[in-house]
Amino acid sequence: MIRFEEVLTKHLSDPRFNMAQLCQLIGVTERALRSCCAEIIGMTPPRYILLRRLRQVRVALREAHPGATDVAELARRCGFTQMAQFASAYLAAFGETPTVTLQRAPELRFAIR
User: Which fold has domain 2-111?
Assistant: First the structure.
């Protein structure tokens, strides 16, 4: 799992990064990785990767300046290619749209982390 986290940290923003590459870089089978993830973090590797990417976007949105930030471009830099799916997943994970996160008053953005 330590190696899993190290590899994710390096490749999280690459939208082409897939399970086969992940397993190869870690040196385990997909079955072994899925089993470890289920046991240790309680979810599948793709779900965990999605949540990590969403969190990466959320942190960036909270630190961004609303007038100077393009949500779609930020999402692309974090590995998302389908903006509608990104927006839907973001809303499901955080209960608000990415735009709302970005537009939140700076004093509130830092208080709600």
Answer: Arc Repressor Mutant, subunit A (1.10.10)
